[in-house]
Amino acid sequence: MSVKDSFSYPLFVKGDFDGFIGLFIDNLVNLLIITGLCLSIGMPANLVFGRMLPGTALSVLAGNIFYSWQAHRLAKRERRTDVTALPYGINTVSLFAFFSLIIAPIYIQTKNADFAWKVGVISCFISGFFEGIGAFVGDRLRRLTPRAALLSALAGIAISFIALDQTIKIWDRPVIAFIPLALIMAEYFSHAKLPFKIPAGLYALAIGSVIAWTTGAMDTTALAESTGRVSFYFPGLAVVEIFNGIGVTDILPYLSIAIPMGIMAFFGTLQNLESASAAGDTYPAMPALAMNGVGTMVGAFFGSPFPTTVYIGHPGWKGLGARSGYSIINGAVMTVICFSGLMSVIVSSVPLEAGYPILLWIGVVITAQAFQATPREHAPAVALGLMPALSAWGLNLLRQFINSDGKYTTGQMNEIVSKTLPHLKGILSFSEGALFSAMFLSAVAVYLIERDFLKAFFWSLPLIVFSYFGFIHSHVIGVGMAGPVPLGYALFAAVILMIFLFNKFSAKKPEMKK
Q1: Contact assessment for residue 5 and residue 186, using Cβ atoms and an 8 Å cutoff
Q2: Computed over its alpha carbons, how large is the radius of gyration of the chain?
Q3: What is the pTM of this model?
Q4: E runs forming strands in 166-298
Q5: DSSP for 49-84?
Q6: Which of 296, 304, 291 is nearest to 236 (CA)?
Q7: Is the dihedral of CA 149, 150, 153, 159 positive or negative?
Q8: Which end of the chain is more exposed for a tag (fewer CB within 10 A), N or C?
Q9: Rounded CA separation 184/241 (Å)
């Protein structure tokens, strides 16, 4: 036998179990959030456990198998046994964007869970498609788009819909949530070691659950009912079904969420590939990026409205000694939980408040990264990019309050806001298409800070076009739907262009003799 043939990369090592615990906790928290949020607004349990979760699990399983296989390929090519697979799972940022900006508003307005689910699934597929396309055009997009523009748009969603929206619930039930909060902050902020090397997330869920049950905060009836949902839920092919009763006009308003989330997931994956490379595992970019989108589309084909992605944290799992086995174990366990209906039992046993501190950390670290990973002088541009998502979060709260009984359309809710809160009328326009407008406004700000007025002018052109066709600043996509906003942006762009010409002319003008 040759030396080359004698090389062996183990399927499982001891560190795989440590890595699995950490990755599984991240995915489990996301599953808890998905089920908890969907059930909290009244969506049917059979839809959540029978259609959404099995499709999501299939997406996670497909990605974990691929990235584990990719790790084996890299290990054999480089003849190393210390190669760690890329972590993969549910995209937390997209989860909240899709729930808070697509599924929940549609369901609250129409009370039609099937319709909200179908629009979410189609939007998820579109997001995955654009995520996968990034494998072919991503490098060019990355060169053209300032980092501040991308990260600030993500940070806006993170600080509002992930961190703030969930953090305020911690203070509603402090007895349950504050010990998990202390554990999460201690480990994640200070990197303090906890007993037995158990991740803080597992401690948080376990201790929070014990407190909730011993204080009578949990519903024993709900737990008893959840055991009746334990069954076999095979993910059915939903491709044909989801288009039944769904038209193009139903999807158009949500393209401004689905497309940028797909693009941003691509950029996040590219950054995670660079992080893995810095840790010693340099993966070929195109297949890894393409599979990221394919995994999301696979989930959508089988009924999942929530995208998946390559996770941040590869160096951490590598430091724990995880190789490729932790990825396989994670995908397998997630599949068993979702296919068997056990997630129903888990969500009835574990209080969401025990998991909210993890979301607080995720929201805070993503927002902090937007400032830390960009040049210091670009901080004002990042701050500007936070505002559209914060406005969208505020408008979402207003609409939930106004339409608590589900009898108003979006247009009627907007009219109520305009009449009762005229000083907030601008929020109706500013918050629509938040991800696109945040990206474009931040890019304009970056180049104004750098005094590159021509590039600032070019980045203002998408603001004109997107607002003219209603992709931003309008709840309805169509020509002229944003009212006078496109004209305002045209005037805005004209001023920047004149400043560019003035500065160019002034620079060439010879100095007058004294």
Answers
A1: no
A2: 24
A3: 0.78
A4: none
A5: IIIIHHHHHHHHHHHHHHHHHHHHHHHHHHT-S---
A6: 304
A7: negative
A8: C
A9: 42
